């Protein structure tokens, strides 16, 4: 397990949210950056680098799996937070939030949403390249942005970290996401 990726991401989100006094400059930089190496991302480097463990920091200018995972989760959080005054982050562990896939599953069961969301989720579950995953996740966060449902972006960071470790780990993460997306809401509906 890599709970430090999860804990680090949660800590940075709390810093950026600032109890409602959001760091708008960093959030804007995150939203407008494509990768951690983008010039727009530089505004977020101090908070990211200061909070990652020494072993998770790059020594050669090539982002590590941890840097990429945390940056991506923060970028997605910043996209979701845009235009929302309340905190759109919550932890599944504390029953304050749900996973991105669970939120999408709930939204897909509203009239007219299922095909559109299913298609986007299916695209995500088919890709094996981290850059394609990041792109697909960006589109999915745009879908949940209209929701005030807090999302566990720290768990997403941990998932993204593991996705980058090996092909087998990427398959496990995709299966985990599929299990969350396809099982819970449908199983609950069948019980009712």
Mean pLDDT: 89
Structural class: mainly alpha
- Remind me, CATH topology? Peroxidase, domain 1
What is the number of helical segments per DSSP (H or I, 4+ residues)? Answer: 10
Number of domains as seen in the coordinates: 1
Assembly type: single chain
Largest sheet: none
Helix fraction by DSSP (H/I, runs of at least 4):
55-70%
Tally the beta strands.
Answer: 0
Reported CATH architecture: Orthogonal Bundle
Q: What would the principal axes of the Cα set say about the shape?
A: globular
Q: Write down the CATH class.
A: Mainly Alpha
The portion of residues forming beta strands comes to: under 5%
The CATH H-level superfamily is CRISPR-associated protein Cse2
Order of helices and strands: HHHHHHHHHH
Distance between the termini: 35 Å
Low-confidence stretches: 188-192
Q: What does the radius of gyration come to?
A: 16 Å
Structural account:
With 192 residues, this protein is mainly α. It has one domain: Peroxidase, domain 1 (Orthogonal Bundle). The protein is built from ten helices and no strands. Helix 1 packs parallel to helix 4, helix 5 runs parallel beside helix 9 and helix 6 packs antiparallel against helix 7. It is globular and about 45 Å long. The chain starts with a helix and ends with a helix. The C terminus is likely disordered.
Q: How would you concisely characterize the structure shown here?
A:
This is Type I-E CRISPR-associated protein Cse2/CasB. The protein has ten helices and no strands.
């Amino acid at each position: 397990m890599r709970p430090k990726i999860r804990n680090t991401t949660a800590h940075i989100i709390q810093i950026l949210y600032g109890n409602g006094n959001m760091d708008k400059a960093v959030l804007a930089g995150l939203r407008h950056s494509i990768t951690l190496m983008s010039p727009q991302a530089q505004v977020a480097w101090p908070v990211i680098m200061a909070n990652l463990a020494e072993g998770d920091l790059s020594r050669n200018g090539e982002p590590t799996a941890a840097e990429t995972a945390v940056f991506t989760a923060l970028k997605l959080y910043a996209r979701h937070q845009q235009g929302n005054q309340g905190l759109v982050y919550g932890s599944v562990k504390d029953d304050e939030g749900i996973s991105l896939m669970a939120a999408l599953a709930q939204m897909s069961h509203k009239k007219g949403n299922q095909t559109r969301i299913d298609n986007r989720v299916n695209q995500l579950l088919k890709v094996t390249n981290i850059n394609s995953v990041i792109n697909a996740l960006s589109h999915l966060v745009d879908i949940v942005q209209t929701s005030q449902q807090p999302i566990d972006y720290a768990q997403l960071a941990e998932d993204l970290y593991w996705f980058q470790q090996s092909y087998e780990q990427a398959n496990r993460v995709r299966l985990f996401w599929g299990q969350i997306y396809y099982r819970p809401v449908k199983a609950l509906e069948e019980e009712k």
